[in-house]
């Protein structure tokens, strides 16, 4: 039966459009919303996000295809009516007033006139519905626009190629009412450079790491990595490309392998090779239990940092941030960390938050932070500059 067949096609098409919209907007965009930075969730209450997704998505799923269908049907009818009218009586295509005037003025065959009139009135009513549908479609697309506002850009697969980091007048505060902890940071770190960061406790060294990983969003300014503003990409893309060795790493409950490669994307050989480069192969073989726990007693702070370095090696990150353990790490482990950084991360940009003087002797430049500000432009190691010399002198005095 033709009308039933037509309706079936329409309904099927409507369902297909609805399912496509759902896949495009919810299926692909929802994970990006879940990856949004903390500030997004602070500014947008959960209820608003849920209502946005449910209300707008309902409109996108059901109303947009429905009105789009109606628009298509009315357009089709209008086109048919125009074709028929233009074939039978082309002059009827002129505006309505002119047509009616002409219609009553010109004497035509009654039969043709009736036929044309019926078609014409149908056309005008169709036009009305067509415009109404057009307006509905336009109105519903606002929902699509609103949903698309939550979308972030995808960086290039090989980003960051060089690993250059630029802080442009960067300011950060942990919450809206708390004081600024990084205040107008201006800094450029070239790709592959080894930068040491020093400063008194509370000067903002770990906050700089938090800023780079977007644990906290900027209050002003921006951070560029190879020219890409890190706020323009998703959190998962950003954090996938950087590696951090935190001040006090926490291990997951599970095997060493699970801790190094939680998504099982590397072979056992690659995992052992990474452990070998960080001098952890024998330790893991001989003294680390098969099943790790978050109990800090089983693996020392230095060893946990070395495991983080193995993870960074496996991930092949271009940018490594090492927040040196401030708790005492034995001299041997400490020097192993330094040797690994020097040998295995030669081509990586390395930011080392240093608590020990011999660490900054290994880096290219030293940045001194004080109350969230750079006290002077970073100094070259061994340059004999006043700042570097005074750092060493302070250390020597403390040692004495
Ligand atoms: N989660 C947080 N919420 C609010 N304020 C914080 C938070 N973390 C740090 N701060 C504040 O930010 C400032 C800088 O702290 P940060 O941890 O960056 O110092 P740091 O230089 O790493 O010190 P340390 O050498 O002791 O590790 C401090 O005044 C601290 O009180
Ligand atoms: Mg710190």
From TrEMBL:
One GO term describing the cellular component: basolateral plasma membrane
Main location: membrane
Gene Ontology MF annotations: ABC-type glutathione S-conjugate transporter activity; ABC-type xenobiotic transporter activity; ATP binding; ATP hydrolysis activity
Segment forming the signal sequence: none
ABC transporter domain span: 165-396
Keyword terms of this UniProt record: ATP-binding, Membrane, Nucleotide-binding, Transmembrane, Transmembrane helix, Transport
Location of the protein in the cell: Membrane
Transmembrane segments: 68-89, 96-121
Catalytic reactions on record: ATP + H2O + xenobioticSide 1 = ADP + phosphate + xenobioticSide 2; leukotriene C4(in) + ATP + H2O = leukotriene C4(out) + ADP + phosphate + H(+); an S-substituted glutathione(in) + ATP + H2O = an S-substituted glutathione(out) + ADP + phosphate + H(+); 17beta-estradiol 17-O-(beta-D-glucuronate)(in) + ATP + H2O = 17beta-estradiol 17-O-(beta-D-glucuronate)(out) + ADP + phosphate + H(+)
Superkingdom to which the source organism belongs: Eukaryota
Lipid bilayer topology: Multi-pass membrane protein
SUPFAM superfamilies: ABC transporter transmembrane region, P-loop containing nucleoside triphosphate hydrolases
Name used for this protein in its record: ABC transporter domain-containing protein
């Amino acid at each position: 039966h033709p009308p039933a067949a037509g309706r079936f096609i329409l309904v099927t098409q409507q369902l297909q459009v609805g399912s496509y919209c759902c896949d495009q907007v919810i299926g692909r965009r929802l994970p990006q919303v879940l990856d949004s930075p903390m500030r997004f969730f602070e500014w947008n209450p959960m209820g608003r996000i849920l209502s946005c997704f449910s209300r707008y998505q309902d409109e996108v799923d059901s109303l947009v295809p429905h009105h789009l269908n109606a628009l298509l049907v009315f357009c089709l009818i209008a086109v048919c009516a125009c074709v028929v009218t233009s074939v039978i009586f082309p002059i009827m295509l002129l505006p309505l007033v002119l047509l009616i005037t002409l219609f009553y003025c010109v004497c035509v065959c009654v039969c043709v006139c009736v036929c044309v009139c019926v078609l014409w009135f149908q056309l005008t009513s169709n036009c009305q519905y067509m415009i109404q549908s057009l307006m509905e479609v336009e109105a519903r697309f606002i929902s699509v626009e609103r949903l698309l506002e939550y979308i972030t850009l995808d960086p290039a697969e090989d980003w960051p190629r060089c690993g250059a980091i630029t802080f442009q007048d960067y300011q950060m505060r942990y919450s809206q009412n708390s004081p600024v902890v990084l205040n107008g940071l201006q800094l450029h770190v070239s790709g592959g450079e080894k930068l040491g960061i020093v400063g008194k406790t509370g000067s903002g060294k770990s906050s700089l790491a938090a800023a780079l990983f977007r644990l906290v969003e900027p209050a002003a300014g921006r951070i560029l990595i190879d020219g890409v503003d890190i706020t323009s990409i998703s959190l998962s893309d950003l954090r996938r490309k950087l590696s951090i060795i935190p001040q006090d790493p926490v291990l997951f409950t599970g095997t060493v392998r699970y801790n190094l490669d939680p998504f099982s994307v590397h072979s056992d050989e690659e995992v052992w090779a990474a452990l070998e480069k960080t001098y952890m192969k024998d330790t893991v073989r001989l003294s680390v239990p098969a099943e790790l726990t978050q109990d800090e007693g089983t693996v020392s702070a230095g060893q946990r940092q070395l495991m983080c370095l193995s993870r960074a090696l496996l991930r092949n990150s271009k940018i490594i941030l090492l927040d040196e353990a401030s708790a005492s790490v034995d001299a041997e482990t400490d020097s192993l960390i330094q040797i690994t950084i020097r040998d295995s991360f030669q081509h990586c940009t390395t930011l080392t938050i240093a608590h020990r003087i011999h660490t900054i002797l290994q880096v290219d430049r030293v940045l001194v932070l004080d109350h969230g500000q750079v006290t002077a432009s970073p100094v070259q190691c061994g340059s004999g500059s006043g700042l570097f010399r005074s750092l060493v002198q302070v250390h020597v005095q403390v040692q004495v």
